[in-house]
Prior knowledge:
By secondary structure, this protein is mainly α. The protein has helices spanning 4-7, 36-51, 54-67, 74-84, 90-98, 100-113, 139-146; strands at residues 20-22, 30-32, 121-122, 126-127, 130-131, 174-175. A hairpin with a 7-residue loop joins strand 1 and strand 2.
Amino acid sequence: xxxxxxxxxxxxxxxxxGATLKxxxxxxxxxxxxxxxxCYLNTIHACAIDAWPVGKHFKFIHCLETQATKIQDTEAxxxxxxxxxxxxxxxxxxxxxxxxGKQLILEYADETDALHPQHKFVPWVVVNGRxxxxxxxxxxxxxxxxYKGNNVPxxxxxxxxxxTVKETSNNSGCYAEAKKxxxxxxxx
Length: 188
């Protein structure tokens, strides 16, 4: 699992947008590659990132990602995760119901669309401007190699002797070309 210590080494952004399409219509309809549940959870993720500091929202998102594939009721999953972690559901409810979550997803869409090189699949991991492409599972090695501070976290100790980082991997993620699926609209 991703170490919170590594996560705090540099300025990090996690955007839950991936293979989501944003319409050019004034209301910016959002269509997700894997359907309405994906759009809903992307919005919940965005609200969590907006509401809680990194240590809390990362644990919450990890819980969601581990549980969401096992349980069909996505609302029940995020509520259970927030309960398990002792996190108030109120900021998530407020963010989602006010339309703030949709606003965040639209911002993520713009930031994702501006990436160079453009993302080809998800997860699309970039460290210091370098897209890791298929080697995204080795993100910690890239982060630790990029770290220039004096107090290297213990989580980086296994990477300190590496002279190079693996250039390619067989991991291809989930391709960014979204399929036609039902639209999901968080409240405006």
